[in-house]
Description:
The chain has about 190 residues and is α/β, with parallel strands linked by helices. The chain has helices spanning about 50-65, 80, 85-95, 110-115, 120-130, 155-165, 170-189, and strands at about 5-15, 25-30, 35-45, 70-75, 95-100, 135, 145-150. A hairpin with a 7-residue loop joins β6 (about 135) and β7 (about 145-150). The termini are far apart. The relative contact order is 0.21.
Amino acid sequence: xxxxxxxxxxxxxxxxxxxxxxxxxxxxxxxxxxxxxxxxxxxxxxxxxxxxxxxxxxxxxxxxxxxxxxxxxxxxxxxxxxxxxxxxxxxxxxxxxxxxxxxxxxxxxxxxxxxxxxxxxxxxxxxxxxxxxxxxxxxxxxxxxxxxxxxxxxxxxxxxxxxxxxxxxxxxxxxxxxxxxxxxxxxxx
Length: 189
């Protein structure tokens, strides 16, 4: 992959209690494959809400970067099960979307079912169950990655992740997480 190829990484930070705030900080970082950070964008989504997909789409449009080739997400359920609709997101940004996680799990369906009553439970479960299958990648970075992708073939997704992952996390997601934490800390002060 060419060193100038860019990806937008999106990650979330929430460090409050329910009494303190109901919004979670999202950050997006445009990072080139050579690790150069090109741009940042910020958004909010509701803790326990259903607006994460819309918040990411809005951030994408505000960013206005036609040169970004991929959208990488840290997980599929930021802000306490605010499940991202990967298919709708990929259609809105017209780019491949890859959601990464770093640990094996049995999934979120049981936790969502336990945390929410109808109709909120059904809406989240429907979005979650419509997600692409999660795959384990062994040969990326310092440990396995677990990825769900849409708008891209699995082999191409694996190559993209390999190009952007220099250690444990894909660089765009790592930078976005640090930016989200810094912005969240700033907002709390």
